[in-house]
Design a protein that fits this description.
677 residues; alpha+beta; seven-stranded mixed beta sheet; six-stranded antiparallel beta sheet; 11 helices; 41 strands
Length: 677
């Protein structure tokens, strides 16, 4: 249970934070061509693990694809069994993988020793073919101990659904039939390291308590963290994660790698720049040590034109990026350490301590405990500067937070979270709040109002007409969760307590109402039947002379809704007047115990025998004089082979299709195709 909780925390933090490393602490500045912070984090962990490295020119090439042979090597390294390669390098398992082939040992070990791969129907392995996301996920599921016979269903959809269920594909959008990129593979393996073993024989990783990585010595094979030294499974000289906080990943008593995380006010930036004018980037080159950096503001790609007065910039060497944060919080100055003239830490907001950067001392030393001031924060929650409270509008506090069910307050900061020491009253539980302090030693909260409105479409990543930010934070019942953990449907605006648009107009925060989560799905009704032996009796007890006991076979019919990509609702006995094969819309409601029920089932309106000539591009279709909208995520079902396909595949399969729409808004929700002879 402890490992699972650590894993969930790590997954959440990776969703909303970026890898941060102290400037000057690393001789390796990360891969020069990786700008996605989550890919950078995963790539550095895998480089340290020996699973996936960069190229000689310092690049990682995150968009390049992997072959099946390359992926086999990665999988073998992840199991820690590469020391047995000699037993498999001189044999031939597949006719197209000769002992002379560079990956023969890895492929043979993966097939015969680990039993995590299989060849094609022609008996070959095709090692130079590109590995698809579905194939990669299948291999890693087997590595974790998942059995093919237990997964069942239609490959690869059922395997992708299983991977999503256990967290293997958290925060990844993968097309199972498309080639896997190096960037996707890095994040997939990072997820693997924090996923629990799923069965007998599955690899089982252990995560340490949160710690700081102090050194990695490739010559001695030692990894040193705060309070402990580990023997490395794959001695490496990568120093890209030195100084980061996170968890050591252990397997068979050795350290496989280090999974870094940020958050809280531990802080990792060693210096920062406070902007005192709009669209100003003075000093950025000196901060980064080069002029080839990229800019991220609150976790989203930005340009100089997006910068505003009192924004704070710090440097992340792992991604060669300037991280800009616009979080400001108005507080009463409670105490400091060691002195007001040279503070290294400052305590505010009812007991929360923030680290003070050396570059902030000049502005902060002008104040003393008892003053009301506005702190300017870095992306990792350190104090970069201070101004007098109540000054210019652009320097006023803007800090928001989310309160958990237990009253814990997490302040949002540039896509990350900072837990505060003071707790909230009952009236703020599971609310979005504005954070400040109106008097000494006290946290002042007010419920945030306004915000953005609209339905949340999980599959298209939109709230109303606005796109979701890449690092969008989703809170459900006051707990940070991932977008991928939500049912792939539409969450109505009435179930959304608050949504915020960031500086770029994208939604970066969504808080769901907690009384009951409701999601709208569209799909096809399926049926399941089961039977069981039930013991029947008559008479009061065995002493009754008329007592009899016998068994009867009892049958039960249930139904549910399938809605593409191997996704299915729970089944129910309530009929709702539908039958297998009907296309419907329904609400999925989840209570506090996590139980999901189906309500509000309605049949979709059928539009039969619609010719492809009625379409206008791929976004609308004209039927009986009415124009219907077709979303890019529309579900398409091939009735001939009972599979869900893409819209492009559906239109190529046949010239005539049956469309199913929600009549109130004129949107096509499902398309069914079949061969009509």
């Amino acid at each position: 249970m402890k490992k699972r909780m650590v894993s969930l925390l790590l997954a959440v933090l990776m969703t909303v934070t970026a890898l941060a490393i102290p400037a000057g602490a690393s001789t390796i500045q990360g891969f020069s061509d990786v700008t996605d912070q989550r890919v950078a984090l995963a790539a550095e962990s895998l480089r340290l693990m020996g699973v996936l490295d960069g190229y000689g020119d310092g690049t990682f090439r995150p968009n390049a694809h992997l072959t099946r042979g390359q992926f086999c090597k990665m999988a073998v390294y992840a199991t820690g069994t590469e020391n047995t390669l000699g037993l498999y390098s001189t044999t031939t398992v597949f006719p197209d993988v000769k002992p002379s082939y560079w990956a023969a040992g890895y492929i043979n070990l993966a097939s015969k020793g680990l039993k995590i791969i299989a060849g094609y129907a022609d008996g070959k392995f095709h090692p130079e073919e590109l590995v698809t996301a579905g194939q990669a996920v299948t291999i890693l599921l087997r590595l974790l101990g998942c059995k093919d016979e237990n997964i069942g269903g239609v490959w690869p959809d059922s395997y992708m659904a299983t991977a999503a269920l256990i967290g293997l594909t958290d925060n990844l959008s993968l097309d199972p039939r498309s080639p896997l990129t190096r960037g996707q593979a890095a994040r997939l393996f990072a997820n693997l390291l924090r996923t629990e073993s799923q069965g007998e024989g599955g690899v089982s990783y252990t995560l340490s308590e949160e710690t700081e990585l102090l050194s990695v010595d490739g010559s001695t094979g030692e990894m040193r963290t705060t309070g402990k030294t580990y023997t490395m499974a794959h001695p490496a000289s990568s120093t890209g994660l030195i100084g980061a906080r996170g968890h050591v990943v252990e397997l068979n008593g050795k350290a496989m790698t280090f999974l870094a995380l940020t958050g809280g006010n531990a802080g990792t930036a060693s210096s920062a720049i406070v902007l005192y004018a709009d669209k100003a980037a003075d000093g950025f080159g000196d901060l980064a040590g080069n002029n080839n950096y990229t800019i991220y503001k609150n976790g989203s790609p930005a340009t100089i034109n997006d910068l505003r007065k009192h924004d704070v910039a710090s440097y992340n060497p792992a991604t060669n990026s300037i991280r800009v944060c616009d979080t400001r919080v108005t507080v009463y100055y409670e105490s400091c350490d060691p002195s007001p003239s040279e503070p290294k830490n400052i305590t505010v907001l009812g007991g929360t301590r923030f680290s003070v950067l050396p570059s902030a001392v000049d502005t902060l030393s002008a104040f003393k405990p008892g003053d009301q001031i506005t702190l300017l924060l870095t992306a990792d929650g350190q104090v970069a500067g201070a101004v007098k409270a109540g000054g210019s509008a652009e320097a006023r506090g803007n800090a928001l937070g989310v309160v958990s069910e237990s009253g814990e307050v997490q302040m949002l900061c540039a896509g990350g979270v900072i837990p505060l020491e003071a707790s909230a009253g009952d009236q703020y539980r599971e609310q979005v709040v504005r954070i400040a302090s109106s008097e000494m030693n006290k946290l002042s909260l007010s419920v945030a109002t306004g915000g953005q409105s609209g339905d949340l479409n999980v599959s298209t990543r939109k709230l109303g007409s606005r796109n979701l930010a890449e690092n969008v934070m989703i809170y459900q019942e006051g707990v940070l969760t991932s977008l991928n953990s939500l049912t792939n449907g539409v969450i109505r605006s009435g179930q959304i307590a608050y949504a915020r648009a960031n500086w770029a107009g994208e939604i970066d925060l969504v808080v769901l109402k907690s009384s009951m989560s409701s999601t709208v799905v569209y799909g096809r009704v399926f049926a399941e039947s089961s039977s069981a032996e039930v013991t029947m009796t008559n008479g009061k007890d065995e002493e009754d002379p008329d007592y009899e006991e016998w068994t009867e076979k009892v049958h039960e019919d249930r139904w549910g809704i399938e809605y593409g990509n191997g996704q299915r609702t729970p089944t129910t006995k309530i009929k709702y007047g539908v039958k297998p094969g009907d296309y419907v819309t329904a609400n999925l409601k989840k209570d506090r115990d996590g139980n999901t029920t189906i309500t509000g089932v309605k049949k979709l309106t059928p539009l039969l025998n619609v010719s492809n000539s009625a379409w206008t591009g791929t976004s609308s279709v004209l039927v009986a004089g009415r124009s219907y909208t077709v979303p890019s995520s529309v579900l398409c079902y091939n009735k001939d082979n009972s599979t869900w396909i893409t819209l492009e595949q559906a239109q190529k399969y046949t010239q005539i299709a049956d469309l199913y729409a929600t009549s109130d808004d004129g949107v096509i929700r499902v398309i069914e195709v079949r061969h009509r002879g």
